[in-house]
Amino acid sequence: MLIGYYFKLAWLSLKKTPLLSVLMIGTIAMGIAATMITSTVSIMMAQDPLPEKSDRVFSVRLSSWSPDKAYQLAKGEEVIPPMLTYMDTMNLLEDSKGLRQSAAVMYKSMVRSESQTDKEAKMLRFNSVNNDFFAMFNVPFLYGAPWSDLADREGAALVILDRQTNDRLFSGANSVGQHVFIGKHLARIVGVIDSWSPLPQVFHGPHHAHNLPFPLFTPFQFQVNNNLLSKGEMGWQCWAPLGDGTLETFLASECVWIRYWVELEAATQRGDYMDYINAYVEEQKSGGRFARENLSKIFNITESLIEDHVVEDDDFIAVWLAAAFLVACLLNCMGLMLIKFYGKGAEVGLRRAVGASKQHIAMQFGCETVLIGVLGGFLGLALAQLGLRITADIFAHLPAGLMQMSLPLVVMTVVLAVLSSTLFGLWPIYRAAQTQPSAQLKSL
């Protein structure tokens, strides 16, 4: 009963000093909003995109670079290429030592439906993958299904669209069995994926980690068979001249351009798969390749994000800076509380004189700090949502889901505001509770 009475007094107290109350609530709200905006973005950018099996999906990296120099050096240590050659990719696919395995390459081409003219074609980006890719990365299908193993091996002219492309070309209807032109190649649609935006997007490396997935998928061998190679998208790297520059020469070269992913049945099989990779490297060494020290590695999803510098310790510096700003705001709020509570010395003295204990005074002002924290928390939540909306508009190329607060963060926003305001209000409350009634009554 007394708690309700104290909250009523707290509300009346805030109304008596509106300017001071607005300053305290606004100060807390700004600190909370800054912290929540940076926390939301940092958490979303560093989240696990495949939490249900991120410990058993691996990026394979081989020491296939030049015998004369390292691929890269980082802090004095050699770094191996994140991509594989075509030869190594085909060898690993042929061996199929994992539960699932897939190449992953990007390219772009003009795309139109059969009913559209060449002028209506649009340049779109493609994911060049194997059929295991879809189950490996839990890609949801709206219509159809992945292509067959035979289509994978032959590089059949098949394509899977994303939902947005299907909406644009076929008005959202089930387009399985329809055809689209990929450049000059007529490809049959075998599936349409549902809305899917893993964050970060790990399978194409760091430069596309926070973009939406490319809208179309074709068999990896289809890209190779039809020489659909886009260096601007693929970013291949070579340590030896390509000779005559033909496709055959390129495929037989030591150029790295393919990211290779494997899913194991259990994370405990990692050692066995690494033994297979080491045996493969030794086999290639005996054939005159892989002249460098064997530094070949496999990285799970979390490790890949760190290795590719998608997630770094520096990413959370902004969170610490925002937290420091929140502390500064709370210190200012504490100063304002001291001013406010000091100005109520006469009221405290009168209440003490008629029998109120120090605990009662502390309870009264404690309820006031809690109320300030609650109001500051809700205002901070509104400011955080506004800030995230503005950030999403500025960085429109990023997925919308990146700028959305989760329910736990929403709850944490209000809880943090209440706890922090209460914590920083302890000193003003203590000072108010120590007020001597005799001294205050003499001043009346």
Automatic annotation (TrEMBL):
Domain of life: Bacteria
UniProt topology in membrane: Multi-pass membrane protein
Subcellular location, principal: membrane
GO cellular component: a single term: plasma membrane
Keywords per UniProt: Cell membrane, Membrane, Transmembrane, Transmembrane helix
A GO term, aspect molecular function: transmembrane transporter activity
MacB-like periplasmic core domain segment(s): 21-197
Domain ABC3 transporter permease C-terminal: 322-437
InterPro entries: ABC3_permease_C, MacB_PCD, Macrolide_Exporter_MacB
Membrane-spanning residues: 20-46, 317-339, 360-386, 406-430
Subcellular localization: Cell membrane
Stored PANTHER family: ABC-TYPE MACROLIDE FAMILY EXPORT SYSTEM PERMEASE COMPONENT 2, MEMBRANE COMPONENT OF TRANSPORTER-RELATED
Protein name in UniProt: Putative ABC transport system permease protein
Organism: Pseudoalteromonas rubra
